[in-house]
Design a protein that fits this description.
The protein is an alpha+beta fold. It is built from eight helices and five strands, in the order H-H-H-H-H-E-H-E-E-H-H-E-E. One of its GO terms (cellular component) is membrane.
């Protein structure tokens, strides 16, 4: 197609050159025609006819080339328009597909949150209430039977029951943290890190960089679960004594870094094959995020997460935490 356009330009230039040569030659022949005799005059007239025919042929060739070039340009513009329309349709479909995936994920998260609230309420009000009632009956039983005041087995049973009540309350709270609903992600994570530091051998430093906004409750809860799972893994497997949890927000990007000084692990690929980490990566991906793990044996592990939060921000919650 470009070759046709090039040839058209070339033919036009050639036609212009031939026309100039023809005009110059025509003037010369006409001048000679006036000066020549009968036979020579006839010969010159024949030569003029040949030159005129050549010029007509050149002009016809030129206009045919112009038509081909115009057709080629129209075809080129048509192809460009079709390509542009197809690209617009593809981008539109891609946007609709992503929006549908986000909508499905939001529906799943809402369902999960609703189920967690129900389980949390059932644990706290149902099982927790029953265990508290049992504890009261045990207390009344001891009051009615004085010999139980010094019974070791009875005391031990009460301790186990108290531990069970405490675990039910803790599980209920972890399923749906009150601080997360009331004060947001930053406050809930800070409180969680403080609790872990007070109740275990792991000292966690929590910090934020930049202004962390409030997000939809579904996303705040999911991110809270991700950090909670990472901290739990550190306590269970890393033998770490210190850890850092850092949140940073810049424009539409939220990054979370969880780092420890534990034993690390030898192979990233081996670690990533674990069921727990696979589920964690799937949760992060569903939040439109990415997870990067780096580790050095005997020097600790760093989990770096990056989230696109453009669709996570709650329009009615714009106050920084």
């Amino acid at each position: 197609m470009w070759r046709i356009i090039f040839l058209t330009i070339h033919n036009w230039l050639e036609n212009q050159s031939l026309q100039l040569q023809h005009n110059s030659l025509l003037r010369l022949m006409q001048k000679l025609q006036f000066q020549a005799g009968g036979q020579e005059k006839l010969l010159i007239e024949n030569q003029l006819l040949v030159i005129n025919k050549d010029l007509v042929i050149q002009q016809q060739t030129y206009w045919v080339s112009i038509c081909f070039a115009g057709f080629a340009l129209i075809m080129l513009l048509g192809c460009f328009v079709i390509y542009n329309q197809r690209r617009k349709c593809y981008l539109l479909l891609q946007t609709l597909r992503e929006a549908k995936e986000i909508e499905i994920q939001e529906a799943i998260m809402k369902g999960e949150e609703k189920e967690r609230k129900r389980i949390s309420r059932d644990l706290h009000d149902g099982i927790g209430g029953l265990l508290s009632a049992v504890r009261m009956h045990f207390g009344a039983l001891r009051y009615q039977n004085s010999y139980l005041k010094y019974d070791y087995e009875f005391d031990h049973a009460l301790e186990i029951l108290d531990d069970a009540i405490l675990e039910v309350r803790k599980t209920s709270h972890n399923l749906m943290p009150d601080k997360l609903n009331q004060h947001g992600l930053v406050s809930a994570l800070e409180g969680f890190c403080q609790k872990v530091s007070h109740s275990s051998m792991l000292l966690i430093t929590f910090c934020t960089v930049g202004k962390i906004q409030r997000f939809h409750s579904n996303y705040e809860l999911s991110i809270y679960r991700v950090v909670q799972e990472l901290i739990t893994n550190i306590i269970k497997h890393s033998k770490a004594t210190e850890a850092i949890v850092q949140l940073t927000q810049h424009n539409d990007c939220l990054t979370i870094t969880v780092e420890d000084n534990g034993v690390g692990f030898k192979s990233i690929s081996q670690k990533q094959n674990g069921i727990g980490l696979t589920n964690l990566k799937e949760r992060i991906t569903s939040l439109n995020g990415q997870l990067t793990l780096t580790t050095i044996p005997d020097s600790g592990t760093t989990a770096y997460m990056e989230f696109n939060i453009s669709f996570m921000q709650s329009p009615d919650l714009q106050v920084a935490i």
